[in-house]
Design goal:
alpha/beta, 4-stranded mixed β-sheet, 13 strands, 36% helix, 12 helices, 9-stranded mixed β-sheet, UDP-N-acetylmuramoyl-L-alanine:D-glutamate ligase
Length: 347
Amino acid sequence: MVGFGALNMDHLYTVPELIRDGGVEVTMFTAQPGGSAANTIYGLAKLGLRCGFVGIVGDDEAGSALLESFCQAGVDTSGILAASGVRTGQTICITAGQGQKAIYIIPSANSLLDSQDIDLSYLSDTRYVHISSFVGDGPFSQQLQAVERLPARVKVSLALDSLYSRRGLRNMSTVLGRCAVLLGNAEEFRELTGQEPRSAAQTCLNAGCNVVVATFGSGRQADHGQSPLGTQEATASMIVTRRTTGEGAIYHTVPAVKVHQGPIVDTTGAGDAFAAGFLFGLLARRYGPAKCGALGHTAAGFSLTALGAREGLPTREALLGRFEASFRSVFGRKRKTGPALHPVRTR
């Protein structure tokens, strides 16, 4: 698995409430390496997969920290350029509890990405390329061109966020047409398509995606009174797949089982953790769509208990242990996990 997206140093602040004017106390603060695809690749490496990354950092302290973080997790960094004389991308993330967040992005080195910085042979030497957003039309265009040039045997997964969902279906058509897996939350799918998640998923399948995964914040579906399939069951995620024969789609849902231990500290990076768990299950080739979604939900639960996107991410043993314990009643009797503990070859 190779990631391809922005690389940032995240400056995270926890406050009692988000305000438009005035002042409030910062209760917690940290600075950590980040970037959506980067967080997912870091999580997959921690789960034992062979991973690499393509992107750009500056030749500063933040860039060195980003590279060192990857190296500690075992991610290959040979596809990352350190540009001379520029600063590494930065984000300021202010969070005030679940669902209350403001992120301000300083793209810096990321905005300089051009075709010479993208090693297409490196991207082509993998089963999956996992991509996430860049700020600005220039890097976005370079990313689309790289995706178009990938061999057909290389599958693409995309993590939606507001930067890309607000571009709309037309501007995202190239990458959607190559998407083996499209992951996003309900609001991002509404923004991308102008439709509710169930209809949005079908629209994305029609655009060329093979698997569409929509996540729902804890309690949101329960507040709405029913799942995307019309039942009263609170839903953590919905996975929509193409039928192998005939037209239409198959809808799978994952119930909103509690998978975190202790209080929720921060939701930053929960979607990236979900993507890591889901893709881990997919690449293991022994889990169906619903179980992949449950693995994603479980991984996200780990991330909620620490400040920032990476501190709480689980090892493979921890992920599978909590997955079995949390979803035993959903998926039946406990199964042996031995085969899944063996290395998963992804490149």
